[in-house]
Amino acid sequence: MHPRGGSELENFRSPAEIAALAVESGVAKAKLSIGKMLVLGFLAGAFIALGFLFDLRVTATIPKAWGDGFRFLIGGAVFPVGLMLVVIAGAELLTGNMMTLPIAFHARRVRLGAVIKNWIFVTIGNFFGSIFISYMAIEAHLLTTGDWKKWTIGVAVAKVSLPYWSTIISAIGCNWLVTLAVWLALGAKDVIGKIFGIWFPIFAFVAIGFQHVVANMFIIPTAIWLGGPITWGQAITELSGAFIGNAIGGWLFVASAYAYTYINKTASQSEGKTGTISST
C-alpha cells in the first residue's frame, strides 16, 4: 500500500479508463482548427525527425564488426525522444491519431469525415516538419559526410527496396507498437510514467525495423537530397504503403480491439470526463 493509504498503482489508469480517455482525446483532436492541425502537425513531424536524426548520428559510426543488431539496439534506445516530445510537449502525430480518432469514431463521438479531415491536415503538417529537420540536418552538415551520409542513404534505400506488401505488413507492426506507446502514456498520470510507457514500445519498433510513415518522411527525402539512388516515385510508393499499414495497425489492432472490449457506447461520454485530455 501507498504510505498515505492509497494504492501503489494510483498513478496508473486501468485499461477501461485509458479507453475512455483515448475517446476524449480523439474528440478534442476532431475539434481542432485547420491552423492548429497544421502547426501541431509540423511540430510532431519535426520531433519525430529529430528522434531519427539522433538515431542516425549515434549509430552511423558504430563499427560494422559490432553487428547491425547492436546498431538497431542503440538506435531504438534513442529514437523514442521524438514521441516523448509529441506526447509531453504537445503535438499532432498522424500515427497516434490513427488510434485516438478511430476509437472516438467507434464510440460514436466523432464522424468519419472528421477522422479523414484530421489525418489529411496532420499529414501535411507532419511532412513539412519532417523535411524542415531534413533541411536543417543537411545545411548543418550533420549527415553530409563519411559514415553519416553512407548510413543515412543505406537506411533509406533499404526502406524503398521493400516489396509493397512487405512495407504494409511492416507498417502494421510499427503502428501497433506506436499506438500502444500512446495508450500506455495515457495510462500514466505523471511524466516519468509517460516516458517509460512511451520508451519501451518505440524502442521495440525501431530495433525491429518496422516502417513508420512520418519517420520515413524524414529519412527518404534526406537520402534523396544527399544524392542517394532513390526517386521521388519510389518515395511516394513507400510512404503510401507505410501510411496504409500504419492506419491498419493503429485502427484495427488497437482502436477497434479496445473499443470492442472497453467502450460502452451508452456510457462513454460520462466515463470519459475523468482525467485530462492528451495532446498526442
Task: Report on this structure.
The protein has helices at 15-30, 34-59, 68-78, 81-90, 94-106, 112-139, 146-160, 164-187, 191-208, 213-225, 232-262, 268-271. The model is unreliable at 1-7 and 266-280 (pLDDT under 50). The protein starts with 14 loop residues before the first helix and ends in a 9-residue tail after the last helix. The protein has one domain: Glycerol uptake facilitator protein. The longest helix has 31 residues, at 232-262. The protein is mostly helical and 280 residues long. One of its GO terms (cellular component) is plasma membrane. This is Formate/nitrite transporter. InterPro entries: Aquaporin-like, For/NO2_transpt. Belongs to the FNT transporter (TC 1.A.16) family.
- Shape estimate: globular
CATH topology: Glycerol uptake facilitator protein
Order of helices and strands: HHHHHHHHHHHH
- CATH classification class: Mainly Alpha
Number of strands: 0
Question: What is the alpha-carbon Rg in Å?
Answer: 19 Å
Quick check: average pLDDT?
Answer: 92
Low-pLDDT runs: 1-7, 266-280
Look at the helices and sheets and give the structural class. mainly alpha
The helix content, as a percent range, equals over 70%
What would CATH call the architecture?
Answer: Up-down Bundle
Largest sheet: none
